[in-house]
Design goal:
The chain is mostly beta strands and 366 residues long. The protein is built from two helices and 18 strands. The strands form three sheets. Strands 7, 8, 9, 10, 11, 12, 13, 14, 15, 16, 17 and 18 form a twelve-stranded antiparallel β-sheet that branches. A three-stranded antiparallel β-sheet has the order 2-1-3, with no helix packed on it.
């Protein structure tokens, strides 16, 4: 009965007669010391609110996002860099990499268009090459690129008549041969496919006009005789110069040689005869005056061995410019006596069958 009474009392006071243990375990609640929303068991640094699993990784020497990697490639301020395999200072845009430090073998730019060739980069000069390589990485190569190094180009020549020979006066600098151009520059007539090289010919040209003029005293002789005459310069008189006008053949190439032939009819006192040229070819025997023909230059050496019969004078063509000196297709030559003492030579004139003549050796295109 006493047991029943004890149990009744226990029920009334709310106790379990079978449990006499202490219900307080003594376990502490989770702590977030830095107040960043992550408890110490989740946070890799609960003393720094900037370090937690939700933080952005930055380059500061810390594992900001608690992924166990310090300053990894996912850092928001990591430097994008590119491999420079050929070590020319320019990176391969196809293989980017991010890191907080610039790695060995990497550069900060991505402008190399061929990272296997150190001669190809934006800093390289564009040059001519057989493979049309874009050396300066501007998207253009060789002749397409205005910046191409002209010293690497070749000289090409227009071949308008398609005979395989080019016109030296129509040159173009290029890396590659264009249609209608060749490397040869020897065509002497690029309008005629049947003619492309020069050959030498010799023509004989007979004087068409002759006249003899005495300088200063106004004497003009209009007869068949070409006179090389001096009165003796010490006496104050001038000499007579016999002029001959020659119409020349068309000289397409070089002028190789000119020889003047005059046939002496009378010679006295060993005259010193030489040949002079005049710059004026616009005269005729009927209207020429004493001042119309002036000496330009001596074009052959003196000859003191003038004899009756044919005498030749090899002209000195040194320094002649064909485009100027014989541009009008004619040449005026005179025989002059440079003796200071009295002497003379008379030669056959233009009206004679033995008029002065020229042998002209020159190039023609055929």
């Amino acid at each position: 009965m006493s047991t029943r009474i004890f149990c009744l009392l226990a029920l009334l006071v709310g106790c379990d007669p079978t449990d006499d243990k202490d219900t307080d375990t003594g376990t502490a609640a989770p702590i977030d010391a830095d107040g960043d929303g992550f408890t110490a068991d989740e946070d890799c640094d609960d003393a720094n609110a900037a370090v937690n699993p939700d933080a952005a990784e930055v380059c500061d020497g810390l594992d900001n996002d608690c992924d166990t990697e310090i300053d990894g490639p996912d850092a928001t301020d990591a430097q994008v860099q590119y491999p420079d395999v050929d070590q020319d200072g320019y990176g391969d845009p196809g293989l980017p990499l991010s890191d907080c430090v610039l790695l060995s073998g990497y550069v900060a730019n991505n402008t190399d268009c061929d990272d296997t060739d150190a001669g190809v980069s934006p800093g390289s000069p564009e040059v001519c090459d057989g493979d049309d390589v874009d050396e300066d990485c501007d998207g253009l190569s060789d002749d397409e690129d205005d910046s191409v190094d002209t010293s690497t180009q070749q000289t090409t020549y227009s071949d308008a008549d398609g005979d395989g020979y080019g016109d030296a006066d129509a040159a173009v600098q290029r890396c590659d041969l264009s249609s209608g151009y060749v490397l040869d520059a020897t065509d002497c007539d690029d309008t005629n496919p049947a003619a492309h090289e020069f050959s030498m010919v010799t023509d004989t040209v007979i004087a068409s006009e002759t006249v003899t003029i005495a300088y200063n005293n106004g004497v003009v002789f209009r007869d068949d005789v070409v006179r090389a005459y001096t009165y003796g310069k010490t006496g104050g008189n001038d000499d007579l110069v016999g002029w001959s006008l020659f119409s020349l053949p068309t000289i397409e190439g070089a002028l190789a040689e000119m020889i003047l032939y005059v046939n002496a009819t009378t010679v006295t006192s060993a005259p010193m005869v030489h040949t002079v040229r005049s710059a004026d070819d616009g005269w005729t025997r009927n209207i020429v005056g004493s001042s119309d023909i002036a000496r330009d230059e001596v074009v052959s050496i003196n000859k003191s061995s003038i004899t009756s019969g044919w005498n030749s004078f090899l002209l000195d063509l040194t320094g002649w410019d064909i485009t100027e000196d014989i541009a009008d297709g004619a040449i005026t030559l005179g025989v002059d006596n440079s003796n200071e003492s009295y002497s003379y030579a008379y030669f056959s004139g233009a009206d004679s069958i033995e008029a002065p003549y020229l042998e002209v050796t020159y190039e023609v295109c055929n």
